[in-house]
């Protein structure tokens, strides 16, 4: 399901995985850093509340425009507004992970989220979904931890 779409940014939500995916388009490569801030704030202003346990941001198209400050701003300002209280992992897809610094654990809304940089989308998806809870299609939405036995009362 697409939560937000503009010429520059698309935010997709995978309902069954509680995964929120930010994807910058080809047009975004012509923006400046201000434009990137603006797009992300515009997305937030839509006030779309979804349970995001996994967050995946594909920065590749805008990577040469963004600085470490943009990364830090995303984590400090955007992440707390989109991560749910069960947020689990966050991954950034970049061409050159060595350009950016990212703490491996980030505390957000009293939850510790594991964070990583990747330059390979398949590896990223494999990592981000490891041990993640999945919503059963048509199932109820109780909090279910796989591996624990599930007691219905």
Can you describe this structure?
The chain is α/β, with parallel strands linked by helices and about 150 residues long. The protein has one domain. It is about 25% helix and about 25% strand. It has 3 helices and 7 strands, in the order E-E-E-H-E-H-E-E-E-H. The protein has a 7-stranded mixed sheet with strand order 1-2-3-4-5-7-6, with helices on both faces. A hairpin with a 2-residue loop joins strand 6 and strand 7. The C terminus is likely disordered.
Task: Give the gist of this structure.
The protein is α/β, with parallel strands linked by helices.
SSE arrangement:
Elements (H helix, E strand, L loop, with lengths): L1 E4 L3 E6 L4 E6 L8 H13 L8 E5 L9 H15 L6 E5 L11 E4 L2 E8 L2 H9 L24
Parallel strand pairs: 3-4, 4-5, 5-7
Antiparallel strand pairs: 1-2, 2-3, 6-7
Which key features would you list for this structure?
153 residues, alpha/beta, seven-stranded mixed β-sheet, 3 helices, 7 strands, 25% strand, globular, disordered C terminus
Oligomeric form: single chain
Q: What is the alpha-carbon Rg in Å?
A: 16 Å
Find the count of extended strands (DSSP E, 2+ residues): 7
- Terminal CA distance reads 33 Å
Strand content: 15-25%
Number of helices: 3
Summed over residues and divided by their number, the pLDDT gives a mean of 87
The coarse overall form would be globular
Largest sheet report: 7 strands, mixed
Overall number of structural domains: 1
Tell me roughly what share of residues is in helical segments: 10-25%
Low-confidence stretches: 140-153
Strand order of the largest sheet: 1-2-3-4-5-7-6
Helix/strand structural class: alpha/beta
How do the SSEs run, as a string of H and E?
EEEHEHEEEH
